[in-house]
Design brief:
The chain is mainly alpha-helical and about 220 residues long. The protein has one domain. The protein has eleven helices and no strands.
Length: about 220
Amino acid sequence: MDGATLLLDLALIVGAYLCGSIPMGVVVARLTGGVDPRTVGSGRTGGTNALRALGRRRAAVVVSGDLLKGIVPVLVARLVAGQAVVEVLCGLAAVAGAIWSVFVGFRSGRGVGTGVGTMLVIQPVAVLLATPVFVLVILITRYVSLGSLLGSAALFPAMLLIWAVASGAVAPQYLMYAVIGPALIWVAHADNIDRLIHGTERKFDLGMLAGRGGSSGGGAADG
């Protein structure tokens, strides 16, 4: 690897972190005159807390933005660098930025939406396989945090299944990403995990999705 290639790869990784660091909940709140999600609920800037602070429509914009924060850096890395390892490093940087944003004091979301965005580029079929786990756990338990934890954990067995069926579709670097990426998300959920263990985690109010409001929602998998 020559110096120019190394500098390009580093620039892609730094760019991925900065892209992931964009606090979509704060941005949408400021552009629309809404409540800053850092002042309510979990204080996080991602989708679940944006739903509490901003309502369904603006929360949908936040979620879409979080997805793009993962899609764009990995896609750019694929087009520019053309190496799986650079894609993976950019994906990790984007997720890290979504969790520890340089723009809001290194405390933003939980990295879930951005992590999903990275996987939509790396291996969308794995997302398709893991999504039912995320949805069913939330519907059954009403814990968004538990759904996020188990849904992210399901990515690795999903990738193994894809590798077993079509090994050419899963590079070894992608298998590693399916372990390290979810691990970052689990670290971001440390407080949720503690509350789940002690039975104090707040349950998500499904009525918010129907526009009925409510402030009891919890288990935030915020972004």
